[in-house]
Amino acid sequence: MSEKIIRSSGTRTGEHTVVHMMRHGEVFNPSGILYGRLPGFALSETGRGQAQAVADAFADHEIAAVFASPLQRAQETATPIATSHGLEIITNDDLIEADNAFEGLKVSVGDGVLGRPRHWAKLRDPFTPSWGEPYIQIAHRMLGAATTARDAARGSEVVCVSHQLPVYTLRRFLEGQRLWHDPRHRQCSLASVTSLVYDGDALIDIVYSEPAGATDPLIRGA
After folding, report:
1. Tens of pLDDT, residues 17-41
2. What's the pLDDT tens digit per position in 69-123?
3. How many domains does the chain have?
4. Quick check: is 157 in a domain?
5. How far apart are alpha carbons 30 and 133 in whole angstroms?
6. pLDDT tens digits, one per residue of 119-152
């Protein structure tokens, strides 16, 4: 892990492209619900600071395009990066948060819905998972978003602002790991950057960085 974001440079093909998959910053969520794809969840003051910190880290990078999930928190995270490079945000629905049957509910230990028997059937299959969008579907749409971004920024860099589970699922897919996992061990802090390094069309490296600092992977805001 590093605080420094990798940048594009020449390779044997002369076409070194970096697709930066970024998780959005902290969200204002005083009720502590799992908000998923619900509208109206904006960045907190801390989240805005995290977004600006990453924009500052990208200031001297050659950013050719900025893509973002359609959700407000992703759009707000992408804004300072796009603004500093004189770019318009391109909205890509493939970057959206994973669908979740617990959306709008509390899922925290002690006061959450997981302690209520009527919700237990939703947990019957953690490997797909049964309570939300299948991991393989998330991986495929995120790979499509990464490919679209790479093709838009050949020989340069591009930023895609998405959400914790989609970004981390894509990373596990590309690294050949099983897609089901323990969320307590996700390496995908708020406003972190998972950079996909391409030599031509070939993925040659994945580099993780935390320019805005590390956060607990269980903090709500995926």
Report:
1. 999 999 999 999 998 999 999 999 9
2. 999 999 999 999 999 999 999 999 999 999 998 888 888 655 666 667 777 777 8
3. 1
4. yes
5. 26
6. 777 788 888 998 899 999 999 999 999 999 999 9
Asked if residue 4 is part of any domain, the answer here is: no
Structural tokens at position 194:
């998972």
Residue 7 lies in a domain: no
Look up the pTM and report it.
Answer: 0.91
Contact 68, 77 (CB under 8 A): yes
For 93, the domain range is: 16-209
Judge whether 222 lies within some domain: no
Beta-bridge mates of residue 103? none
**CATH number of the domain bearing residue 195:** 3.40.50.1240
DSSP code of 57? H
User: In this structure, what DSSP letter does residue 108 have?
Assistant: S
Residue in the structure block whose two tokens are 């089901």: 180
What is the rounded distance in angstroms from the CA atom of residue 94 to the CA atom of residue 143?
9
What phi and psi, each to the nearest 5 degrees, are found at residue 19?
Answer: -105, 110
- Rounded distance, CA 150 to CA 148, Å? 6
CA-to-CA distance for 160 and 69, rounded, in angstroms?
8
CB-based contacts of 140, cutoff 8 Å, min separation 6: none
